[in-house]
TrEMBL record, chains A, B, C:
Residues reported to bind ATP: R124, S170
UniProt catalytic activity: 5-(2-hydroxyethyl)-4-methylthiazole + ATP = 4-methyl-5-(2-phosphooxyethyl)-thiazole + ADP + H(+)
Natural source organism: Thiomonas arsenitoxydans (strain DSM 22701 / CIP 110005 / 3As)
Pathway(s) served: Cofactor biosynthesis; thiamine diphosphate biosynthesis; 4-methyl-5-(2-phosphoethyl)-thiazole from 5-(2-hydroxyethyl)-4-methylthiazole: step 1/1
EC supergroup of this enzyme: transferase
GO molecular function, one term: ATP binding
Protein name per the record: Hydroxyethylthiazole kinase
Length: 275, 275, 275
């Protein structure tokens, strides 16, 4: 497996732009539009479909499946289980975003039901969500984390091994942990990214696109998080220099997902390998 | 209760920014993303959740509940009733936006069902919607008002007393009426704000955030409407000076919700007390 | 019927701006917000409503009905059929966007069910979708076309005659075909428009607004597609000149829908009549 560095991560970016993978999303109402635009800006081909009558067919033609429980209802969980089974049967990557896990018992049951149907390839959440999925009593506050990402690392490592999945704990520092114990930290990004709804969910969607072109899900997850992190900090700097705010950041993020160049990516990447 | 003036209203803005109240929204599909971004830009913490399986739990941890009937279906009304009951049981504020009331019998029945389950703390709508909620035969046109806000004031005053709720009739002039007869007019804003979908619904969501930090719902409603009105007229002026249009206004509004300063707010506020 | 030229098409634009037709949309979750904003920017009055309990009433007060199958479920198809029947009973125009037709059997069945309930006034899709609706085995890829619009012209011509509907095949060149054999090509637009989600769906929504003010649906469809095409290429040129990307394009498109002037429209229109 390639050792993740700026060159190998950038190669994944180019692969997404060139291969334009079809990413099937079953995601929440709040972020559907923004996630579709994020995938399009990146160069991927999003499709959103949730009907139980067609999710098997859609997952059957996609190169990756992204599941996000941000706005649930029973029919949607059922559709997610069906799509997850199809995706696993075909061997395409599945990325799960347990939005708000820990906030309500219903979300916890939904996560349990999904995990019972099959492990995802990658699980991405904030610290509270990852702790909750691991069964650790965690403080949460709606869909925001009440814990720092650093606090969840040991739990995430164990969870990765148990699920056989890459686990990404996002926060001021992103931690990405592989089932085999590999661990990297990313320190890119900007705090304003938490004030645009759907940026975390977009990270999950982008991981789906990267996993579609990079068979090492650990590498793909790092590439997606690193790319979004660099895009975000460059965009935030531009927006602040113009005296603009988080509205403009939302748009500048999409511009950056399309236009970021290799030179900026290399100059800005803050990747630390931890083993 | 504080007499509403620029200083006391600005204090509410600072309180929202500092306390970051968790606002539970059960709202329509069209504006979910924009309302979440408006609340985040303001400094509040939005959560959107509509499943009957979890709305009681979510309303149980929120500091305010916002109900918006813009895109209804029976399950959503049921969920709204459940969340409303939980919120009232806990004594947290409930803000109701009767989008399109009067446009179809179904919307009228939905409003009646919600009001039967419990009065909101604040009711915000355009003139047609408020007239319709009051049972006055009103001309409506889809979700747009066919009446001027000034025409609905007397009806709104009676409605406020009957419901024991603050009633806000928004329009070129916003009228805010308390159950005890207090009444203020706000003349901020810009007509282009009606050409960005979800700005009215965002006003309702912002009222929720302000009510979470200001126990006098009359004062909180004035603060939210005044803040959005000033943000909107400043944003519209900037956008027009750049030769841009209502697309850019949508973004500039979010920037302004984050960045408006006390000086501009004081200089621009057009508040008239009516008693 | 007016021969479509820049003057007659621009007259339709002015008619929409002046009459502000109420357009009832039953559309997908991904694009609801963007389509509502596109209609508002153009000067029309959008309403989104999907509940079976109210679609007949909403279609009963609208000037046009737009149906879009982008994110389906059984209740939505049922609601679309009800609204379609009401619209046809009242003689208002119906525009159908068969998003992703051909991608899954469920979508094909949905289209068949809608067409069985009544022909639309206008059918707009990309080449794959139109070929699929016509029953031609077509390559599709999620919701993106795998065929060029030129390849679908003959099939679209036959389909227009069979349905008694205007058929619009959009792509690098847009083909618009009337049931009586009239055919025009439009060569405006910019490839980046395909990287903003909902632009195609917005085209469909705009056609609804134009059909509400122009009884010749062929003329109205050309006007809508020409207007959006010119707006899009002007916006793309501006965005690229600023070093911005598809995020900014999304916003610039809305600005342009509001602000495009007659002079630019006349100078840029690339319309070719084919008979």
């Amino acid at each position: 497996m390639p050792f993740p560095n700026a060159d190998s991560l950038w190669a994944d970016v180019l692969a997404v732009r060139q291969q334009q993978p079809l990413v099937h999303n079953i995601t929440n109402f709040v972020v559907m539009n923004y996630n579709a635009n994020a995938l399009l800006a990146l160069g991927a081909a999003p499709v959103m479909a949730h009907a139980r009558e067609e999710v098997r067919d859609m997952a059957g033609i996609a190169q990756a499946l992204v599941l996000n429980i941000g706005t649930l209802s029973p029919e949607w969980i059922e559709a997610m289980v069906m799509a997850l089974q199809t995706a696993r049967g075909r061997g395409i990557p599945v990325v799960l975003d347990p939005v708000g896990a820990g906030a309500t018992p219903y979300r916890n049951r939904a996560v349990a039901e999904l995990l019972a149907a099959g492990s995802p390839t990658v699980l991405r959440g904030n610290a509270s969500e990852i702790l909750s999925v691991a069964g650790v009593e965690a403080a949460t506050r709606g869909v925001d984390s009440a814990a720092a990402s650093d606090d969840a690392v040991q739990t995430a490592r164990t969870l990765a091994a148990r699920l056989g999945a890459v686990v990404c704990v996002s926060g001021a520092t992103d931690h990405i942990l592989a089932p085999d114990g590999r661990h990297v930290r990313l320190s890119n990004g900007h705090v304003w990214m938490t004030r645009v709804t759907g940026v975390g969910c977009s990270a999950t969607a982008l991981i789906g696109a990267f996993c579609a072109v990079q068979p090492d899900a650990f590498h793909a997850t790092i590439a997606a998080m690193a790319y979004l992190g660099v895009v975000g900090e460059v965009a935030a700097a531009q927006v602040q220099a113009q005296g603009r705010g988080v509205g403009q950041l939302q748009i500048a993020l999409l511009d950056g997902l399309q236009l970021l160049d290799a030179e900026t990516f290399h100059a800005r990447l803050r990747l630390q390998t931890d083993d």
